Amino acid sequence: MRGAGDQFSVGERVTFYRRRRGLTQRVLADLVGRSEDWLSKIERGERELRRLDVIAELAQALRVSVGDLLGQPVLVEAREKPDHEDIPAIRTALMNHRRLSTVLFPDQTRQHPPRLDAVEQLTTSSRRRFLNGELGDVIAVLPRLITEAQNLEDGTAQNLHHAFALSSRIHHLASSTLTKVGEADLAWIAAERAMAAADRSSEPRVIAAAARAGASALMAIGRFDDSLQVASQAARWIGQQVGSDARTDPVVLSLSGMLYLRSAEAAALAGDRQTAYEMLEMADQAAKRLGADANYWQTNFGPTNVMLHRVSIGLDLDDIATVLNFGPDIDASKVTSERAASWRIHLAHAFAVSARDDEALGWLLAAQEDAAQLVWHSALARETVRSLYRRSVGRNQGLVELAERCRAIA
Question: DSSP code of 274?
C-alpha cells in the first residue's frame, strides 16, 4: 500500500493493515493500550491521530513502518527536469552491489579518483538548495553525489580524511532529504553511511554533524529513545573533544545546539516532557552564547531556530494552546526557507486541530510560498490538508489545488 493511494487517511491505512494481519479492532486496541471505541473512531476518521508516538505504537503492533501508515509519496521531481533522477535512482546508488565485496569487485577508481574540489562544490550548492526547500532538485543530483562519495572513499586522494569528511556530508544530505520525503528506511541507510565515513575522517565536527543525521533518521522510523541517546551523547561528546572552546566556538555551539534540539524532539515524541524541556534549555543556552541567528556548518542554528522548535515540540507534547499563544508571533525572516516552511506547517496543524480551518489554510499557503516541494511531500501537511478538505463546506479553490498537490485526495 505504501507509495500508492496517498489520498487514504492514516485511519484507513490502519484498517488496511489490521485486516491484512487478521486482527480485530479489540485485539489491536489492546496491543497499544487503547479502547476499542478509540480505534474504531480512528479508523472511521471521526478522530485524528495527531501524535507520532501513537502512530509508531500502532505501526509496531501492525508490524509495518511508520511510513507505511503515513502513506509517504515516492515521486519527487526536479522543477526544471521532470524526467530526471528520482528516489529509485538514489536507492540504486545506495545499494550498489559492487560495494558488497572489494574482493569480488576490485574498485576501478584508484587511477582516476574524482576531484575533491569539484565534488565539494556540488555538495555545497546542493545543501544550499535543500535549505531553500528545493527537494526535487536535490534528489535529482543525489545519485551522482552518492556515487562520487563512494569513489572518493575507494580512491587514493592525497587528503583521505578530507575525502571521508566529504562523503559524510553527502550521505548526511541524502539522509536529510530522504527523511523529508518519507523514505525513512533509505534515510537510515544513508545516515549509517554518513556516520561510518565521519568516523574514518577523525574530525569531531564531522562526527557530530553526522550524528544529527542519525538521530533524525532514527526518529523517522519511530525509534525515539535511540534517537535521544544518539543526539544527546553526540552533544556531550563534541563538547568534551574541544574542551574550553565548547563555550565559544561558533561551529561547536551550532552543532551541539542542533543536537540538543534533536534530543528535545526525540524526547517529546517519546512522551518525556521533562527531558524534552531540559534539552530545549540546553539548546537555548547554546543559542544565547552564539548570540545571533547564523548558519555555521549549515546548521541554521540560533535563537530563532530554538523558538521554532518550541512550536514543533509543543505540538508533539499536545500543548496546542501554548503553541498558538506564541507561535504565530515568531519572526522567521532570518532562517532558511526549509525551516520557515516547517514552522508554518506545524502552526497550520495546530490551527487545524483547534478547528480554526481558515487560519490553518492560510499558514499552509504561506508555507507553500516558502518551500512548495517541502509542503507537497510533508506527511504532516498532507494529513492537515486532508482534515481541512473533509471538513470544508464549500470547495475553496486554494484548498482543492493544495490537496491535489499534496496527494491528499484522489
Answer: H
Q: What is the pLDDT of residue 82?
A: 44
Taking only the tens place, the pLDDT of each residue in 168-216 is 999 999 999 999 988 888 999 999 999 999 999 999 999 999 999 999 9
Integer angstrom CA distances of residue 84 from 80, 117, 144, 170: 9, 24, 12, 19
Q: How far apart are CA 180 and CA 377, in angstroms?
A: 7
Residue ranges in 63-115 assigned as alpha helix (H) = 66-70, 87-94
**34-54 pLDDT per residue, tens:** 999 999 999 988 887 878 788
Question: What pTM did the predictor assign?
Answer: 0.83
Return the half-sphere exposure (C-beta side, CA atoms, 13 A cut-off) of residue 46.
Answer: 6
Q: Whose grid coordinates read 496527494?
A: 407
**pLDDT exceeds cutoff 50 at 4:** no
Q: How far apart are CA 298 and CA 258, in angstroms?
A: 11
Q: Which of 179, 191, 182, 90 is nearest to 142 (CA)?
A: 90
Class (C level, CATH) for 10-70? mainly alpha
Check residue 77 and report its DSSP letter: -
Nearest-CA neighbor of 210 among 148, 166, 153? 166
For the chain, what are the domain ranges? 10-70, 318-409
Could you tell me the CA-to-CA distances from 21 to 15, 24, 56 in Å, in that order?
Answer: 10, 9, 17
Query: Rounded CA gap, 22 and 24, in Å?
Result: 7
